[in-house]
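Worked example (supplementary).
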Amino acid sequence: MKASYINDLEAWKSEFSFYIPITIRFSETDMFGHVNNVSPFIYFEEARIAYMRSCGLFTDLKGNEGIPVVADLHCDYHKPLYFGDSVQLFVKTDEVGNSSFDLHYMALNQHGDICLTGRGRLVYVNATTGQPIPLDEESKEKLLGD
Amino acid sequence: MKASYINDLEAWKSEFSFYIPITIRFSETDMFGHVNNVSPFIYFEEARIAYMRSCGLFTDLKGNEGIPVVADLHCDYHKPLYFGDSVQLFVKTDEVGNSSFDLHYMALNQHGDICLTGRGRLVYVNATTGQPIPLDEESKEKLLGD
Amino acid sequence: MKASYINDLEAWKSEFSFYIPITIRFSETDMFGHVNNVSPFIYFEEARIAYMRSCGLFTDLKGNEGIPVVADLHCDYHKPLYFGDSVQLFVKTDEVGNSSFDLHYMALNQHGDICLTGRGRLVYVNATTGQPIPLDEESKEKLLGD
Amino acid sequence: MKASYINDLEAWKSEFSFYIPITIRFSETDMFGHVNNVSPFIYFEEARIAYMRSCGLFTDLKGNEGIPVVADLHCDYHKPLYFGDSVQLFVKTDEVGNSSFDLHYMALNQHGDICLTGRGRLVYVNATTGQPIPLDEESKEKLLGD
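After joint prediction of all chains, the assembly is encoded as:
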């Protein structure tokens, strides 16, 4: 299993604890018979928002204070997902900067196989100006705390 | 070809003139091998917006004046669509009321087969209050004009 | 609340018992701030498949025997859905014919408000030929049984 | 503009020639008011398939011979895309291996601004066994030829 953001797979894997179950929708399959390659980014988004909320962060999605904006996203497809699979999508914070942070993702199917891994950087910005806002210490601790 | 909103198919069909080409996306297919049944509503929306713009209506989608809100949507699936098909999606106004109007839809594939028909009511509302706004005479004429 | 397939709302509503919870995905909202009008059809599909499985029907989605094909779909939008809403999507059988049946749908938000209602006909067909296959008595009973 | 796969932006940009126009669909926006971060992967897929077809490759999507499977995808979001934007999505081959190749992506809006960049590896596999199939010399030349 190769991915530029994974050095030691077992160590990397062991650092996850937060996850959400994912329900694969029929419309997310494609004519190749498995889950289309676009769909993991839908799942990453769902898991990312649930994770940030579990950290007590970014609960105001109307953006009155600031909103997390996706700077990049990367997904590695290790095994196909199929309609009917029971998926656990794990999320963890990998790194926290001044106004941005990296989240990592891992999707396991019902057999415990790693089907997807991924990562992406989020920048915390002012919803009106788009300018980066520094993360306060409390937020940084929450992100690193779990 | 049965659909509750079509009395005389040939007459109904002949009243269309506006259409847009639709590019079927691979992610819009599903594991049954053809276009998923959700996708036509994506196409209807794309065609509806293009049609309303062609009538000079609702060009301000930020909703400072009013926005068209979908009251209902109905699609009949007559023939499957496949990835790679060249689709023409036709739209016409069927009926205009005080603050709402009905649009009808028809999708032809590259062989001229009717693959989809549909209809739906739109209500013109104040974006802030959600209350219906009467359509002015100019707008009504534009909708009925084509 | 008007919809062509509802005569008596209270009676119609009371006939539902099967439902699934729906998780609204962020990507299913649109720039108007609420759930896009295409998304209910994704939810209907998810609920429909869960419902059919609960009836012991159509568990073989590879289509070796027969597959249910959507003949038409109709959705009425009564109240907007928002990201974060807790949605219960109810499904019931309305009518069973020789090789087809009508399902009805109702979506309630966390306040018990009816946000969506809908209906659609499914035809049971041979996956290879596309020809309708008669439903056996056991399947009909299962559909009507709940 | 930072992206791990771009050394010299001007040189990188100048190597693109193939592109397709992208129609942004209203349903692809989200409640933040711009195109949702999932949608670029839909556009990448559409452009990738068009590009491969333009190279005379992988025209048989039924997979009787072999199919291109996505190994990974990476997208950097440089500027938001909005509903109504005119987008040109460029694709080029970056590297060709024995049975896999890297494609790069660049999306320009109507002002010529780079809104998205991306890359991803495709592996050519036997549709039945999932085993990699070596690319023949003709295919390699086609991919590198543009």
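Two points are worth noting when inspecting this output. Strands of chain B lie at 18-23, 67-77, 86-96, 100-108, 114-125. Chain B has three helices and five strands.
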